[in-house]
Amino acid sequence: MWTDSKQLQDFIVPKAMTAEDILLTKNEFVIAAKNALVAGFDGVELHGANGYLLEEFLSPFSNTRTDNYGGSIEDRCRFVLEVTTAVAAAIGKDKTGIRLSPYGVASDMPHYPEIDATCEYLSKELNKIGIAHIHLVDHSAMGAPAVPLEIKSLIRKNFTNSIIHCGGFDKEKAEADIESGLANLIAFGRPFINNPDLVERLANNWPLSTDLHMDLFYAADEKGYTDYPLYQEKLITV
Ligand SMILES: Cc1cc2nc3c(=O)[nH]c(=O)nc-3n(C[C@H](O)[C@H](O)[C@H](O)COP(=O)(O)O)c2cc1C
Questions:
Q1: What is the mean pLDDT of the chain?
Q2: Is 185 touching ligand 1 by the criterion CB < 6 Å?
Q3: Model's pTM, two decimal places?
Q4: Which of 29, 74, 86, 174 is the most buried (most CB within 10 A)?
């Protein structure tokens, strides 16, 4: 496991959550969501992507449970849907979203035959709960397999509220996905790190910086995170 200060560290073999752990964890999501709102956040995005806990329930590789939280698609989606329902009830469905990464391989999550069927069921159920958004991650720009267009279209068809796409976007690609109706919003990750004024740059058609220090990602201090110049500043100092 990667740690900020000691890099890769060994970790213990995880054990399956008990029924009590599941209840407690659901409650922790609710408490965290409420705390986020008290702290001034506009809303909360549940992390159902990239091999984190919620996605571990979705995949039959990581979820080998024999109770009603594992096995069939409905049972593997149960924890995600219960957490989403509980958080939406606590802070409002209009303030609740979820991030998903079908076909993602982050955290060594293998592909499984029922990915499409899982997305079909999950997106319809999330739509019934009525949360504000689904945020779909496509890390193909970072070397992962692409999220098939059919999956993006299927989720679009099943989910009425906002869809966010993320991964390898520039202004042109972002506008194309929004204009096609496939997404309502685009999220930017890495460009926001080396372009702290990304919004202004996009709005004014200013060039984006290509100077990005990936060796400083996942580090423990501000270097490579908060020390990139603004476009205007750069003009002044050149
Ligand atoms: C330094 C760094 C840290 C990240 N940490 C996380 C993370 O903790 N969880 C997550 O789901 N994605 C994480 N991501 C992925 C981003 O959220 C985003 O999906 C990815 O960078 C693709 O978007 P981009 O091409 O606009 O950068 C991280 C990305 C970077 C560059």
A1: 94
A2: no
A3: 0.94
A4: 29
